[in-house]
Amino acid sequence: QVQLVESGGGLVQPGGSLRLSCTASGSIFSGNAVAWYRQRPGKQRELVAAVTSGTTTTYADSVKGRFTISRENAKNMVNLQMNSLKPEDTAVYYCNADLFDGTGWYDYWGQGTQVTVSS
């Protein structure tokens, strides 16, 4: 069964850091673009960061200079390092990628991981 699983969320004080990880089971990331989205309370889901099958990255303006997305292909993992966190970064963070399940390519989402930035 193909699925994406996020980990690493939690409660952190403003100015702190968290590292989110996304792993794919039943498929591989190495040839695909992978993205992190978030949904803040009362807001629509928004793109936070994305990385291509290579190393080209894209960031939302609100996180540029603070967040870094990276691939660990050997571990079939994509990470989101979040530094200088702000209360407005509080959200459920989701990993997203197109994965091959043996029959075709489909759009997959993880279950989400909660990030809360609060003192």
Q: What layout of secondary structure does this protein have?
A:
Layout: E1 3-7, E2 10-12, E3 18-25, E4 34-39, E5 46-51, E6 57-59, E7 67-72, E8 77-82, E9 91-100, E10 105-109, E11 113-117
Parallel strand pairs: 2-11
Antiparallel strand pairs: 1-3, 3-8, 4-5, 4-9, 5-6, 7-8, 9-10, 9-11
General description of the model:
The protein has 119 residues and is mostly beta strands. The protein contains no helices and eleven strands. It has strands spanning 3-7, 10-12, 18-25, 34-39, 46-51, 57-59, 67-72, 77-82, 91-100, 105-109, 113-117. The strands form two sheets. Strands 2, 4, 5, 6, 9, 10 and 11 form a seven-stranded mixed sheet that branches. It has a four-stranded antiparallel sheet with strand order 1-3-8-7, with no helix packed on it. A hairpin with a 6-residue loop joins strand 4 (34-39) and strand 5 (46-51). The protein starts with a strand and ends with a strand. The relative contact order is 0.32. The mean pLDDT is 93.
* Fraction of residues in H or I helices: under 10%
Mean pLDDT value = 93
Overall strand count: 11
What is the structural class? mainly beta
Q: List the helices and strands in order.
A: EEEEEEEEEEE
* Global morphology: globular
Number of helices: 0
Q: Kindly estimate the percentage of residues that lie in beta strands according to DSSP.
A: over 45%
Task: Identify low-pLDDT runs.
Answer: none
Q: End-to-end span in angstroms? A: 39 Å
| Cα gyration radius (Å) | 14 Å
Largest sheet: 7 strands, mixed
